[in-house]
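Figure 6 in text form: structure in, sequence out.
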């Protein structure tokens, strides 16, 4: 069952008299009990997509659906929706009020939503997040906690509302390597125990490999490859995914992309990746007879599907024909 869905989503911002297409046609689903990783380099639009799925940004066109129903943007509807779909922010230090105790931080959500049994909710959420005994953390301030403990407090704040979906934006980026595994294990345990679904936004493909069921690779406002995590990351089809994977320590040689990601106000014609594509630059696309398509023929939006798929002329030319 699909819980959260983006359908042909477009998000634009004004930029120096032009329109920046931060999200430029995205279909994406998060199923019940499923963890989906959204990966890509900085500036590709993944955080804007996550904020739009949370109702924090309003799309220029397209639809966000929850439980099959389009998201409404009235204050009352958004308040009810955000109890079901909760954010786990990237920086726990910045998101926690230094003047509030752990108890006050976790109790904030239940108070906003007028939920009863506040103390029991806070204790249960802290315990589920791995802070035990929870009462010991009630009077503690954020500066008295380690980075991993602060991230657990942020997760507890989301759990206090009994959500169905977590949207985690770079949930371990600010943590030491020794703590990252603990937080990832916590997210997997929450999925197993509570049936939680999650969209994990990250630039780290190693993290996606360890936690996700499916992965969606985003470039310049659009998903360019998606599918089961084992298939995408063990044999990537899109040259951009290959380049992202090549920087992992076990990769034989890194693929260095030329230049920076293009300006989202001036998205290139043809394949949006072609100005930086190492496959095109090396002449492999020409050998396959698709170099002209790469430079001139735009690729369609990838549908939301569990199957392996890539928006790449070269990858499609190499697929065996039945």
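Output sequence:
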């Amino acid at each position: 069952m699909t819980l959260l869905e983006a359908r042909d989503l477009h998000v634009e911002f004004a930029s120096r008299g032009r329109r920046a297409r931060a999200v430029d046609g995205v279909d994406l689903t998060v199923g019940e009990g499923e963890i989906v990783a959204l990966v890509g380099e900085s500036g590709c639009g993944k955080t804007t997509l996550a904020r739009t799925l949370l109702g924090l940004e309003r799309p220029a066109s397209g639809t966000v659906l929850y439980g099959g129903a389009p998201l409404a943007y009235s204050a009352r509807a958004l308040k009810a929706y955000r109890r079901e779909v909760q954010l786990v922010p990237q920086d726990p230090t910045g998101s926690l009020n230094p003047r509030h105790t752990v108890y006050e931080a976790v109790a904030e959500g239940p108070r906003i939503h007028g939920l009863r049994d506040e103390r029991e909710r806070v204790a249960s959420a802290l315990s589920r997040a791995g802070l035990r005994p929870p009462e010991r953390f009630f009077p503690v301030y954020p500066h008295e906690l380690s980075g991993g403990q602060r991230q657990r407090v942020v997760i507890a704040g989301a759990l206090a509302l009994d959500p169905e979906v977590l949207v985690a934006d770079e949930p371990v980026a600010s943590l030491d390597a020794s703590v990252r595994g603990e937080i990832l294990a916590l997210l997997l345990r929450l999925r197993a125990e509570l049936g939680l679904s999650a969209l994990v936004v990250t630039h780290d493909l190693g993290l996606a490999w360890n936690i996700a069921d499916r992965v969606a690779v985003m470039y310049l406002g659009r998903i360019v490859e998606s599918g089961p995590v084992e298939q995408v990351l063990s044999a990537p089809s899109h040259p951009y995914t290959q380049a992202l994977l090549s920087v992992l320590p076990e990769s034989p040689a890194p693929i260095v992309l030329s230049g920076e990601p293009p300006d989202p106000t001036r998205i290139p014609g043809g394949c949006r990746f072609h100005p930086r594509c190492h496959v095109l630059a090396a002449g492999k696309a020409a050998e396959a007879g698709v170099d002209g398509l790469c430079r001139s023929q735009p690729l369609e939006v990838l549908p939301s599907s569990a199957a392996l798929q890539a928006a790449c002329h070269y990858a499609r030319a190499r697929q065996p024909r039945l």
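Caption detail: The two ends are 32 Å apart (CA to CA).
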